[in-house]
Amino acid sequence: MKLNEKILDNIYLGLILFISFFINLLPERIAINFLGGLIRFLSFTQGKRKKIIHDNFKLVYGDSFPDWRIKIMTNLIYRQFGMNLAEFLRLNKWNESNISEKVKINNLQYLEEGLSSGKRALILTAHIGNWDLMATAIGLSGFKVNLITKIFKQGNLVNDYWMKIRKQGGVNPIYYKRSIFRIKRALDRNELVGFVIDQYVPNASIFVNFMGQPTSTFDALAAMASKFKVPVIPILNHRDLNDKTKLIIDIFPPFKFVEMDDKDEAIKFNTQKYSDLVSEYIFKYPDQWIWMHRRWRKQ
Predict the structure, then answer these.
(1) CA distance 227 to 255
(2) CA-based nearest residue to 232, from 220, 214, 217
(3) What are phi and psi of 294, to 5 degrees?
(4) 88, 95, 91, 105: which is closest to 36 by C-alpha?
């Protein structure tokens, strides 16, 4: 890492630590709404990202989403981002005895059945709602959670701090590179391994439709389901429409991998099924997904 990058890394970490200290001094509801409002206000500096949001909405919805409505959604998206950050920095407030005050989990039996009697399961999820709080809540419900992830772009110190908070929340990160052995070990220990498939991936990917538009999609989940002969259990979440400081986690019936004579076609077919379910969920709660990501950069 170059000297200027190290300096920026320290500055980013210092800023995060300051925000974390301040946010943890405030009551829960005030902290979440404060940081949500602050990030929404500061979004005026994010012209490039706002254009990506606008273009993504136009690509997916066409003329059915006028510009004025996209502006409203953009404000909601940035507010959601700030709320997520506040909750992430306060993950240490939650434990097995009080997590039910914050999170409601629907259909937990799918996980219990999936891991019963030494069975194994992979998890399908996405960047909607608050995915870090969701993973922590699943962990606090008695499950060992691993999440396939990548190194945070803003530097080593920030990445280490981010992963430290995740681990404190009971979520063990598994980095993309050389992950297959760690995935196998986790499955053999009857632990959950989660894959996020709603981001653009230039490598190790295939083209399937996502929200009605073709794009490069991470194919490792289907490949691992095929290799290890395990079901895929979708777990997604959204904010309670009556109280945005509360989270609702929806667990869906497991997908059994559909085998075909052509292995590549089987991977594509199953990945499309996963993508369709995530897409349908985002259509239900469009303000809670990360539209500032260039999901369709190549089609």
Answers:
(1) 15
(2) 220
(3) -80, 75
(4) 88
Answer yes or no: are the C-beta atoms of 189 and 148 closer than 8 Å. Answer: no
Quick check: 99 and 140 in contact, CB under 8 A? yes
Beta strands 243-251 and 232-240: pairing type? Answer: antiparallel
Sign of CA dihedral 73, 79, 85, 91: negative
| Distance, CA of 277 to CA of 236 (rounded, Å) | 10
Position 153 scores a pLDDT of 58
The torsion angles phi and psi of 30, rounded to 5 degrees, stand at -65, -45
Query: Distance between CA atoms of 7 and 212, rounded to whole angstroms?
Result: 42
pLDDT per position as a tens digit, 100-144: 999 999 999 999 998 887 789 999 999 999 999 999 999 999 999
Total-model pTM: 0.94
Q: Which two tokens stand for residue 79?
A: 């507010």
What would you report as the CA-atom Rg of the chain, rounded to the nearest whole angstrom? 19
* Cβ–Cβ under 8 Å, residues 249 and 237: yes
* Closest listed residue to residue 292, CA positions, set 76, 86, 41, 144: 76
Residues in contact with 24: Cβ distance below 8 Å, sequence separation at least 6, in sequence order:
31, 89, 90, 93
Q: What is the dihedral of CA 250, 253, 258, 264, to 10 degrees?
A: 10
Asked if residue 273 lies in contact with residue 130, where contact means CB atoms within 8 angstroms, the answer is no
The answer for residues whose C-beta is within 8 angstroms of residue 270's C-beta and 6 or more apart is 222, 225, 226, 232, 255, 257, 258
DSSP letter, residue 255: B
| 74 in Cβ contact with 57 (< 8 Å) | no
Q: Considering only CA atoms, which of 222, 254, 256, 223 is closest in space to residue 114?
A: 254
Please enumerate in sequence order all residues whose Cβ is within 8 A of that of 150, keeping only pairs 6 or more positions apart, or say none: 175, 176
Diameter over CA atoms, the chain:
58
